[in-house]
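Researcher: Please translate sequence to structure tokens.
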Amino acid sequence: MKKKPLIEQLVISNLKNSYDAVYPGKIIVLNGPSGSGKSSIQKEFQKLMMPNLWVKVGIDNLFDSVMPDITAENMGFWQLKNPIRWVEESKDAGENKIVTLFVGPQGNKVVYAMNSAIAAYAQNGCNVIVDYIAYDQKWLKDLEKKCSGFTTYYVAVEIPLEVLEQREEARKTSPKGHARSHYFNVYGDKKYDLVVNSGSKTAQEIACQLKQLLESKQSEERVLSEHDLEYVDDYVHQTIDELMQAETSYLVVLSTTAAVATLLGLFGTVWGLIHAFVSISQRQMADIVTIAPGIAEALITTLVGLMVAIPALVMYHFLYQKVRLMEYHYMYIADTLRIFVKRFLIKG
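Model: Translation complete:
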């Protein structure tokens, strides 16, 4: 059985093994107040989507965890204004305690790096579900900008404030009053793809809602039409023609050299014979002394012509076959690409 050329094997192997790497991953951003259950939703969604991997990242592991530890010894530092982050306590009009997180210039750099990391996951083909708290709406705007090239769904995780503060007090993962500090402005004025309520629905139920969102959006996502496929096909073949034109441009020099050298050799042969006959007519005799110079001249030019023409002709045919083989490989890749696009990107 004849083996496929190496380039064909590589193309087939790459199409089979790196399909997921060709396309960026999708992003789901769960934006809501601290303690609204976004981490639980992430875990349930991961389980629901297996074996399709969704990486869970967010403000806990990309912002909070990378910061210096807050200890009893340095607590005073974190309660005063500094370049990183700090908290301030106050009360609202109803005398409710509020613990507000402020982020300084250095802390904001970490936030923007977190946003870049989220986009980087998607860029490398990973699906990402993000636990996000938009303490500052500039953070969310920056995330939108960095994720604009990827399929991104923004989900508002709502919860009644009373339920949220009950959870906050029971869990003790953040001081009471922290959720209230950003509860009314965390969502901003953004239009969300989905709004869920973690106070009335379980994390598992919300995970199912997220899956339904993906399925509904997937059917609405733009796919290539047959007209688009024809355009891609024409573009690919035009590119191949340009490549082949570049590859064959120097073959003309070889073919012309072979032809012209042969004709010049023939011209020299005729010229030498003419000289030989002229010598015979002038001397009125046809001995070797009279004929030899003209014949030698004719043979030398013939020899030189053949010495140039034969290598040029051999090299021309050798390179011509190489170019034709290259064209075959290009056409094979083009046909494989067409099948690949038609299978995965053409609707229906």
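Researcher: Any highlights?
Model: The beta strands are 27-31, 54-58, 85-91, 97-103, 127-132, 152-158, 194-197.
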